[in-house]
Amino acid sequence: MAHDTHADAGDLASFTAEVRAFLDAHAPGGTAREDKAGTFVWGKGDDRMAYFSSDPPEEEQRKLEEARAWQRTRYENGFGWITGPAQYGGRDLTPVHDMVYNAIEAEYDVPDTGVLSVVGLGMIGPTILAHARDEIKDRWLPAMYRGEAIACQLFSEPEAGSDLASVRTRAVRDGDAWVLSGQKVWTSVAHHSRLGLALTRTNPDAPKHKGITAFLVDMTLPGVEVRPLRQMTGGADFNEVFLNEVRVPDDHRLGEVDGGWTVALTTLMNERATVGGDNGGPAAAALTPERLYAVLRASWTLDDRAVRAQAAELLADVMATEHLNTRALRGMRAGVTPGPEMSVAKLMYAQNLTCAAHLVTDVFGPRAIADSGEWGTYAWSELLLATPALRILGGTEEIMKNILAERVLGLPKEPGIDTRSPFRELRRSGTGEGAA
Amino acid sequence: MTGITELSESELRELRSSVRDFLEAKSSEEAVRKVIETDLGYDPEVWSQMAEQLRLPGLIIPEEYGGDGFGQVALGAVLEETGRALLCSPFFATVVLGAQALLASGDEEACAAYLPGIADGTTTAALAVSERTGAWDPVQIETRALRRGEGDAGWELTGTKSFVIDGVSADLLLVIARTTAGPSLFAVDRGAAGLTAEPLETLDGTRRMARVRLGGTPARLVGTDGAGGRLMARILDLAVTGLAAEQTGGAELCLESATAYARTRVQFGRQIGSFQAVKHKCADMLVQLELARASAREAAVIADKGDETAFAVAASAAHVCCSRAYMFAAAENIQVHGGIGFTWEHPAHLYFRRAKSSQLLFGGPHAYHERFLERLGF
Ligand SMILES: Cc1cc2nc3c(=O)[nH]c(=O)nc-3n(C[C@H](O)[C@H](O)[C@H](O)COP(=O)(O)OP(=O)(O)OC[C@H]3O[C@@H](n4cnc5c(N)ncnc54)[C@H](O)[C@@H]3O)c2cc1C
């Protein structure tokens, strides 16, 4: 995408007015709330602060339909894909417009569209746009941004997590199609997905980054088997996906044969932008001063010096993280490419939520480990159980720190990471053997 | 304060780089070490060059009082540089504390009397608030002010002030003392009767502190009688915003120093920066620095917008983040350097000392946590 990030002020002002008019007319929950954080009242409303869903299936289905319907409304009114090309239903505007839209929408009561937008629209869509053939873009992009086709990221495998370039799922050419066989794991939203972007090994004799090819897989094809994986929260947001001799037409290949790593990098770049800018969602409520104050009051710890010190450090970090996002956004408006702010914001988002969940459950004590029925106490245990994932998904904390140290600070790369030998000669887990 | 002259991004960059160039020439490590050993604690030559060449003392002083009328954003840019360079200078006490105390008092006559001298670099100032415990708490002010004559000038102060930055060298002392109306701000001239100042030994040689005794010392009331409590809060917000910028600059230098060393030092046949334990330390320092910088710079932006409530929150948050970030970076910088980092000859300890002294300057973690929470309504 050759987008200029620059957006001038007058243009943004009229865009802002347009967004408000749209939301006032269409947001299912009515007009903007005065101040979302300010309306928090202890004991009122839903006390859940979940990062992952743990709804019963009918409820999950209902929310999914609401999400699709809301995405469709956005799309029909020109807000379904703000940065996308008009040709595919986009608006041809800048990432700044996108952020402005999100900030305004957060003031309204609208369905959470995370199931569609985080992976599919945020990461896979831009990858298709950058690397797919025109017929494929025509066929799938409008369907995705209209809320019909949900897409998932078929990257991680049992043997390839942080070391993503070690994927082993095989793709073998057969006429004008490819036959895919292998296993993917931790695939979020695969159980709702029509499409999956899969990284496969097409040349085990090349070094690991040079023998990968990317395919857009129609998840309804024979041989695709999705098995939900239950995560530690109890729900099942991610899955194992088995590919058993799935025939994928060659026109669904993204990028060159053996050129899949470039495709993967586009996805990962968008992933960092998506997760880093993530300061909303139901879990964001956990980080407001109002909510923490209420928790300290309800736990009789308002005058506990140690607790107050922890709360102050946490809230100062939360505020600094917001400032980082504000400054990156302001910089983008002025045409400045953001520096490490987004990566730091992603790390801090995980750290702040983790820190908040532990602080709050600690002060509630037994009320956080058994449901006494008291409002807003046991509810935190659900958030607590989600926090370990935040340090892992989208690049683990350790990998993020490697990236900051190497790319931003210019420290030397890990020696001994083999990027030259043929993939089949590399070591794999649990053995001293080659990979193939 | 209204009527702040705003700087464009490019003017701001220019300001930063001209201050950096100046300090690279005038506040090298060698120069800092030399000046630390002197009685005065700073180089008067450099101070007058700061005034004449860069017009820095007048940076935030309104034009009507002989300054350039810039705001907190500009001041922050300068302080990030002075913090990086560990500049030993009356700048912090005179401008960040003294000039801003005068401006915050709203006393036009006092401003007209003192600010032009500060702006042109001929007057240095110190702000004497804390006493025995070092706390910035109006309740703990015991120094008394008695009215002896007519008008604003007819007061006498008696008491002891401690931890007064540049209290020995300053020409003008701004003192918080208690009248029957409550804590109030007063101006005392260096030569005033009954005034003595003795230097205190300090952890951080780059920032001088003094105990100041006042025995029936003639003083002039600045601002409204009894307004000192509110004034102290406002001055402290401005002071910690300035300090946060200094801390950011110091933390930035520590990170640069650690990463430069990690790239060159070889052990076990490889650069130590390729060991993850070291690499991740540096990444952690970067995270802390980014948080510090965002919180310090944003507090300054909010101050210049004139939103006082939001500023009070942002300033106290920056105080928390920047104090932690600098201390962390200064300590980890020594760790990355190993034995050489612990030597007297290596500059790392100068930053360690400065980081700790900055963290504790206005009361330390408990005080800044409570201040921030109070502003959030806790
Ligand atoms: C909730 C959730 C949702 C997810 N959704 C998806 C999805 O939709 N699609 C998808 O493809 N994947 C998804 N993932 C997978 C995720 O990207 C991987 O879990 C992650 O990249 C780590 O890989 P791994 O689990 O194999 O752990 P490993 O890579 O085996 O890591 C184990 C530990 O070793 C550390 N480690 C590994 N390499 C290094 C190194 N070089 N330096 C320092 N430490 C290292 C890690 O930091 C970690 O602590 C999801 C994961 C979670 C938890």
From TrEMBL, chain A:
<comment type="similarity">
    <text>Belongs to the acyl-CoA dehydrogenase family.</text>
</comment>
<dbReference type="InterPro" id="IPR009075">
    <property type="entry name" value="AcylCo_DH/oxidase_C"/>
</dbReference>
<dbReference type="InterPro" id="IPR046373">
    <property type="entry name" value="Acyl-CoA_Oxase/DH_mid-dom_sf"/>
</dbReference>
<feature type="domain" description="Acyl-CoA dehydrogenase/oxidase C-terminal">
    <location>
        <begin position="259"/>
        <end position="409"/>
    </location>
</feature>
<protein>
    <submittedName>
        <fullName>Acyl-CoA dehydrogenase</fullName>
    </submittedName>
</protein>
<dbReference type="InterPro" id="IPR006091">
    <property type="entry name" value="Acyl-CoA_Oxase/DH_mid-dom"/>
</dbReference>
<dbReference type="GO" id="GO:0005886">
    <property type="term" value="C:plasma membrane"/>
</dbReference>
<dbReference type="Pfam" id="PF00441">
    <property type="entry name" value="Acyl-CoA_dh_1"/>
</dbReference>
<dbReference type="Pfam" id="PF02770">
    <property type="entry name" value="Acyl-CoA_dh_M"/>
</dbReference>
<dbReference type="GO" id="GO:0050660">
    <property type="term" value="F:flavin adenine dinucleotide binding"/>
</dbReference>
<feature type="domain" description="Acyl-CoA oxidase/dehydrogenase middle">
    <location>
        <begin position="152"/>
        <end position="244"/>
    </location>
</feature>
<dbReference type="InterPro" id="IPR052161">
    <property type="entry name" value="Mycobact_Acyl-CoA_DH"/>
</dbReference>
<dbReference type="InterPro" id="IPR036250">
    <property type="entry name" value="AcylCo_DH-like_C"/>
</dbReference>
<keyword id="KW-0274">FAD</keyword>
<dbReference type="InterPro" id="IPR013786">
    <property type="entry name" value="AcylCoA_DH/ox_N"/>
</dbReference>
<feature type="domain" description="Acyl-CoA dehydrogenase/oxidase N-terminal">
    <location>
        <begin position="68"/>
        <end position="148"/>
    </location>
</feature>
<dbReference type="GO" id="GO:0016627">
    <property type="term" value="F:oxidoreductase activity, acting on the CH-CH group of donors"/>
</dbReference>
<dbReference type="Pfam" id="PF02771">
    <property type="entry name" value="Acyl-CoA_dh_N"/>
</dbReference>
<keyword id="KW-0285">Flavoprotein</keyword>
<dbReference type="InterPro" id="IPR009100">
    <property type="entry name" value="AcylCoA_DH/oxidase_NM_dom_sf"/>
</dbReference>
<keyword id="KW-0560">Oxidoreductase</keyword>
<dbReference type="InterPro" id="IPR037069">
    <property type="entry name" value="AcylCoA_DH/ox_N_sf"/>
</dbReference>
UniProtKB/TrEMBL annotation, chain B:
<keyword id="KW-0560">Oxidoreductase</keyword>
<dbReference type="Pfam" id="PF02771">
    <property type="entry name" value="Acyl-CoA_dh_N"/>
</dbReference>
<dbReference type="InterPro" id="IPR036250">
    <property type="entry name" value="AcylCo_DH-like_C"/>
</dbReference>
<feature type="domain" description="Acyl-CoA dehydrogenase/oxidase C-terminal">
    <location>
        <begin position="228"/>
        <end position="363"/>
    </location>
</feature>
<dbReference type="InterPro" id="IPR037069">
    <property type="entry name" value="AcylCoA_DH/ox_N_sf"/>
</dbReference>
<dbReference type="Pfam" id="PF02770">
    <property type="entry name" value="Acyl-CoA_dh_M"/>
</dbReference>
<dbReference type="InterPro" id="IPR013786">
    <property type="entry name" value="AcylCoA_DH/ox_N"/>
</dbReference>
<protein>
    <submittedName>
        <fullName>Acyl-CoA dehydrogenase</fullName>
    </submittedName>
</protein>
<comment type="similarity">
    <text>Belongs to the acyl-CoA dehydrogenase family.</text>
</comment>
<dbReference type="InterPro" id="IPR009100">
    <property type="entry name" value="AcylCoA_DH/oxidase_NM_dom_sf"/>
</dbReference>
<keyword id="KW-0274">FAD</keyword>
<dbReference type="Pfam" id="PF00441">
    <property type="entry name" value="Acyl-CoA_dh_1"/>
</dbReference>
<dbReference type="InterPro" id="IPR046373">
    <property type="entry name" value="Acyl-CoA_Oxase/DH_mid-dom_sf"/>
</dbReference>
<dbReference type="GO" id="GO:0050660">
    <property type="term" value="F:flavin adenine dinucleotide binding"/>
</dbReference>
<keyword id="KW-0285">Flavoprotein</keyword>
<feature type="domain" description="Acyl-CoA dehydrogenase/oxidase N-terminal">
    <location>
        <begin position="11"/>
        <end position="121"/>
    </location>
</feature>
<dbReference type="GO" id="GO:0003995">
    <property type="term" value="F:acyl-CoA dehydrogenase activity"/>
</dbReference>
<dbReference type="InterPro" id="IPR009075">
    <property type="entry name" value="AcylCo_DH/oxidase_C"/>
</dbReference>
<feature type="domain" description="Acyl-CoA oxidase/dehydrogenase middle">
    <location>
        <begin position="126"/>
        <end position="209"/>
    </location>
</feature>
<dbReference type="InterPro" id="IPR006091">
    <property type="entry name" value="Acyl-CoA_Oxase/DH_mid-dom"/>
</dbReference>
